[in-house]
Amino acid sequence: MPHLDAAFNYARWLTKSDADAEDVVQDAAVRALRFFSSLRNDDARAWLLTIVRNTWNARFSRVGSADEHMVLDDMKDDRPDGQLDAEALVIQRQTVERVQRAIETLPTDFREVIVLREIEGLSYKEIAAVAGIPIGTVMSRLARARERLLALLGPDLARGGIGDLS
């Protein structure tokens, strides 16, 4: 399953917990293998992410809101970039952490479309299929999510601490 990394990343953003994300992906992988014959087109990634989303919904609709779970602190990228000096690397890490915290504060509907578009690189059509919503709703949620992120990160943008998100 070449898309397990994307599935785990998506589940981690939905659940805000590595342990819960692992459980969701494991359940989704079992479902995907069981229903592999239902894959009708060549877009296995969107198909698997849809299963991850449905698994997450099924699991957390019983337990309570996934937004109540612990926020990840280990999502930062610790890989050093050889082209950056120490100060630039610290600034980059702080920027990544600020953006991650801002994304984590978004409501689930907005966080979901931002992660699928900006982190996973899915098209609007693929996001609509994964989330089970019309493309117009995807565009609307993305626009509102970006506005909220800009509002949250606005002071940093004004100081020049984060690159332009528009």
Task: Give your account of this protein's structure.
The chain has 166 residues and is mostly helical. It has helices spanning 4-15, 18-34, 44-63, 86-105, 108-119, 124-131, 135-159. The radius of gyration is 17 Å and the shape is globular. Residues 63-75 have low confidence and may be disordered.
Short description:
With 166 residues, this protein is an all-alpha fold. It has helices at residues 4-15, 18-34, 44-63, 86-105, 108-119, 124-131, 135-159.
Q: Would you state the CATH class of the largest domain?
A: Mainly Alpha
User: What is the domain tally?
Assistant: 2
| Main structural class | mainly alpha
Distance between the amino and carboxyl termini: 34 Å
Give the total of beta strands. 0
Topology:
Elements: H1 4-15, H2 18-34, H3 44-63, H4 86-105, H5 108-119, H6 124-131, H7 135-159
What are the defining features of this structure?
166 residues; mainly alpha; Rna Polymerase Sigma Factor, Chain: A; Arc Repressor Mutant, subunit A; 2 domains; globular
